[in-house]
Design brief:
The complex is a heterodimer of chains A (113) and B (110).
Chain A (H helix, E strand, L loop, with lengths): L4 E3 L2 E4 L5 E6 L6 E7 L6 E7 L2 E5 L6 E5 L5 E5 L8 E8 L8 E2 L3 E5 L1
Chain B lengths: L3 E3 L4 E4 L4 E7 L6 E7 L5 E7 L4 E3 L2 E6 L4 E6 L8 E9 L4 E4 L3 E6 L1
Parallel strand pairs in B: 2-11
Antiparallel strand pairs in B: 1-3, 3-8, 4-5, 4-9, 6-7, 7-8, 9-10, 9-11
The chains are: A mainly beta (113), B mainly beta (110).
Chain lengths: 113, 110
Amino acid sequence: DAGVTQSPTHLIKTRGQQVTLRCSPKSGHDTVSWYQQALGQGPQFIFQYYEEEERQRGNFPDRFSGHQFPNYSSELNVNALLLGDSALYLCASSPRTTTGELFFGEGSRLTVL
Amino acid sequence: RKEVEQDPGPFNVPEGATVAFNCTYSNSASQSFFWYRQDCRKEPKLLMSVYSSGNEDGRFTAQLNRASQYISLLIRDSKLSDSATYLCVVNEYSNYQLIWGAGTKLIIKP
């Protein structure tokens, strides 16, 4: 049973560029949440997708957008990259009815130069 | 004031010792609470949920104090493998968002 998988694992971009990160949820999970984790900080909630729609959103600008596909996989897009976007981006999946247990992928480490 | 606050540590503790750390939360309407563990450069993993009556899982004990709005994690007979960052997580049912603390770093020394 595959867990949550994310790609790419590492990437380097320059300011102003755009990036797309991908996530496949754990089998049986239909809800995907994205988090940004800066070094030394806890994960910050970006948004959550269920039934191909954004259901909840954290305090992130519109440069951060996402998508969920019919197979529950998801993408996170970040436009006009800033140096401050450098972080570990974590995807977490869960069944819709969860009250708090999330299963995380290993993350995509983004460096913006 | 941050919504969920933790002492960042690091806590340097000898192997076999008992260590405890707290987490405070600001929203009194918070409904459920969790401790996650995150190893260096790895993803967070659920350690345990925190129930109102307190709960224990082997060497780990979690407690909730609603009046003072904090949760605690106690680790007994600490092992080298317990070295990690422990993240406190609060579920605010009003918006179904999980609010994460910044984590407490624990280092167990031989």
